[in-house]
Design a protein that fits this description.
This protein folds into 2 domains: 332 residues, no CATH class; 220 residues, Phosphate transport system protein phou homolog 2, domain 2 (Methane Monooxygenase Hydroxylase, Chain G, domain 1, Up-down Bundle), CATH 1.20.58.220. With 579 residues, the chain is mainly α. Helix 6 runs parallel beside helix 11. It is 79% helix and 0% strand.
Length: 579
């Protein structure tokens, strides 16, 4: 066999170059699209048909179904989309990913695009080194596009020639003689390769090259494409491992949708292939099944296009059938992945990003969402407090993960609620309505500041853990006293967001807040004395100092929120916030 280790490394290097080009282009397109992707996803998923169109559009733009589904998982995790809304987007993403196969089969095998790639990179250089980030990202898009086809060109030239290496053909032939069993073997090969490489586009490119070089027959290549559709779901499922139940369900729906589609096609596999053959013949190309005689070269040229037709037809028909069963898919996934009792949802419940009701009704919805936001910030504080006083390593890491997750999501919720409030003011709003919106914008910012303070406290505790620092009993007692006071004013603040409670007492909040400030200043004075006396070392002292200073910041934010909440003092206004 003439194909040695160096040749194999060249093949792997060519695949790596192709993957790098895909990654660069996809990430650059996402940077260019940026916030627009969030807006499109949020605004166009009101029903399953819009969801399909949205998934198709976004995947076509970013050239990666994995990027779309991972983005989708993160949005569901953040509560910006519901699990039900995400199913339609998944279906559209599967159709959108077929664009890559068409680009490769038409440009990669029909046009000598490698002649153009260096001029393309040359033209992109001014953009690539531009100080304007958007222009620079566009430059990276062009370079990524060029690298894809450089990699594909290397891939074609690095692939072993069957005539020079008949052993290669024998290797694949021995797995192609088991009838329908061979179809299942190549399906598993496609699934496994996609799971390993983490890119269905790269594996499809590899499959197209194998077809073009007559390594495998059309029916085996089609089986690999079906396997790639299952393997590509692994990315979203990996992204969902640390996410909430809704996000896990989104990833599972992606797997279920593709797996059911593959099983349906396998039931009518050869009739489906002959349907694709008839479509290919109508385009003026040879049948992809003919591999002998004078037509071999023409068949090799037809196979990549035929595979692209197969890929597109499969995904379009799969979506056309399963879109009618979205409620059933939703129920099935809910049964498969049950919600944990202790899990807390952290999501927008009352407002739809990108869609507004009448201005005044939108204000009512925004008030309810702020109340929801405040409840979640309280949970974040409670987890942070637990973290400060836990001695269990396992519990420490679990709580740390929760607080960091809450911080990330609270940042997102602040942006989405603030965006919604800003849109309200763009409409016809009364003077009192405008004042309410301004108050709520400040309130949302202050709530998020509490989240920031909680996260800062968590990061201090994380540093304490990494440095293996232990506090003295006296320091532990002081921190317990500080947090007990914070507990009181936090609960008083939350009264304003609870429809079943009476109005909070600003005088009591002010009294406790002042007491907390005095205690904090007293502890600060004692801390400096203890440092001079050597009661504890510098590192524990710094951690302790950072902690009580952050607690005092937390106190300031809570007091500020209490004041702002009470400034919405008309009972009628407050009832809207609480209900």
């Amino acid at each position: 066999m003439q194909y040695g280790l160096i040749d194999l490394l060249k093949l792997l290097g060519s695949l790596g170059l192709f993957l790098f080009g895909m990654k660069l282009m996809s990430e650059s397109l996402q940077r260019v699209a940026g916030n627009r992707m969030r807006s499109i996803l949020a605004a166009l998923t009101a029903n399953k048909y819009r969801g399909v169109f949205t998934g198709l559009l976004i995947t076509t733009i970013v050239q990666s179904s994995s990027a779309t589904t991972v983005m989708l998982v993160s949005f569901v995790n953040a509560g910006l989309l519901t699990f039900g809304e995400s199913i339609g987007v998944i279906m559209g993403a599967n159709i959108g990913t077929t664009v890559t196969a068409w680009l490769i089969s038409i440009l990669g095998f029909k046009v000598n695009i490698s002649v153009l790639v260096l001029p393309l990179i040359g033209l992109s250089l001014p953009m690539l080194f531009s100080k304007n980030s958007r222009r620079s990202s566009w430059g990276s898009v062009v370079v990524g596009f060029a690298i894809i086809f450089i990699g594909l060109d290397f891939l074609k030239s690095s692939a072993p020639d069957i005539n020079s290496n008949p052993e290669m053909l024998e290797f694949f032939t021995q797995y192609s003689n088991f009838g329908f069993g061979s179809v299942l073997i190549f399906l598993l090969i496609g699934t496994g390769l996609t799971m390993i490489i983490q890119s269905s586009s790269a594996v499809i490119a590899l499959t197209l090259v194998m077809c073009f070089n007559c390594w495998i027959s059309f029916d085996m290549a089609a089986a690999m494409v079906l396997g790639e559709n299952i393997g590509t779901t692994i990315t979203a499922n990996l992204a969902a491992l640390v996410a909430n139940t809704s996000a896990k369900r989104t990833a599972m729906a992606h797997l279920l949708f593709n797996a059911v589609g593959v099983m349906l096609v396998l039931m009518f596999y050869y009739p489906f292939l002959h349907l694709v053959e008839s479509i290919t013949l109508k385009t003026g190309l040879m049948s992809p099944f003919e591999l002998n005689g004078q037509t071999a070269q023409q068949t090799a040229e037809a196979m990549p296009v035929a595979l692209s037709i197969f890929h597109t037809t499969f995904n379009v028909m799969n979506t056309s059938v399963q879109i009618w069963f979205v409620p059933l898919i939703e129920k099935t996934v809910v049964l498969l992945i049950k919600k944990k009792d202790e899990e807390e949802d952290f999501r927008l419940q009352f407002i739809n990003i990108g869609l507004l009701s009448t201005s005044e009704l939108s204000i009512v919805q925004a008030r309810k969402e702020i109340s929801n936001f405040a409840g979640h910030i309280l949970k974040m504080y409670q987890r942070t407090r637990e973290l400060v006083f836990t001695s269990s390593d396992k519990k420490h890491y679990k709580l740390m993960e929760k607080v960091e997750k809450y911080e990330e999501i609270s940042d997102t919720m602040e942006v989405e609620i603030a965006s919604y409030l800003t849109k309200i003011t763009a409409g016809m709003v009364s003077i009192s309505g405008t004042e309410d919106v301004n108050e709520m914008l400040i309130l949302v910012s202050d709530l998020e500041s509490i989240g920031d303070s909680c996260n800062a406290i968590a990061q201090i505790i994380k540093r304490k853990k990494e440095l293996d620092i232990l506090f003295t009993p006296e320091v532990e007692k002081n921190l317990e006293m500080l947090f007990s006071l914070i507990d009181t004013i936090m609960m008083e603040m939350m009264v304003r967001f609870d429809e079943s409670s009476e109005e909070s007492n600003i005088t009591e909040i002010e009294t406790i807040s002042n007491k907390l400030l005095k205690v904090g200043l007293k502890l600060q004075t004692e801390h400096y004395k203890n440092l001079r006396k050597g009661v504890y070392k510098i590192k524990p002292g710094v951690i302790y100092s950072d902690l009580y200073n952050e607690v005092l910041k937390l106190r300031r934010h809570i007091y500020h929120i209490s004041g702002k909440t009470i400034s919405l003092d008309a009972e009628e206004k407050f009832d809207l916030l609480s209900n």
